[in-house]
Specification:
135 residues, 2 domains, mainly alpha, binds zinc ion
Length: 135
């Protein structure tokens, strides 16, 4: 990827990061305020459910923030667009679609295959322990 495009993507990433920090700050402020609002246990349960969703969103935001920070570090170190696993060049098409890509398509597919197998194993052991519990 040429330098102009890298600079352009860098400014996009910095903007994204800024937005994420704003929204991450907002969700945690909201979480602090709803603590005493629900004296009723049922309302509190609903609020807890909402908090669970908030936690998932916040977790995803944190992950995105980390991915963007890592991409910015790679830009500064001149490693942007280089696969962190095999060292080959990541295609421009892939970088435009997802500037935080740190792996080439081949390595990413291998990694996703591993994750899928692992999550199937986790699902299976969760099911196994659940059916054991219900006996
Ligand atoms: Zn690779």
């Amino acid at each position: 990827m040429n330098t102009n495009n890298v600079h352009y993507l860098k400014s996009l990433l910095i903007n994204n990061l800024h937005d994420l920090h704003l929204s991450a700050g907002k969700t945690s402020a909201e979480m602090k305020t709803d603590e005493k609002l629900f004296p009723d246990p049922l309302d509190r349960a609903t609020a807890d459910l909402g908090r669970g969703v908030d936690l998932i969103i916040r977790g995803r935001e944190r992950e995105l923030i980390r991915e963007i920070e890592e991409a910015l570090t790679r830009i500064d170190q001149g490693e942007f667009g280089i696969c962190q696993n095999c060292g080959s060049t990541i295609s421009d098409k892939r970088l435009w679609a997802k500037p935080t890509s740190s792996l080439c398509v081949e390595c990413k597919e291998k990694e996703e295959g591993r994750q899928r197998r692992r999550s199937i194993l986790n699902d299976y052991s969760a099911m196994a322990s659940h059916s054991y519990m219900s006996w």
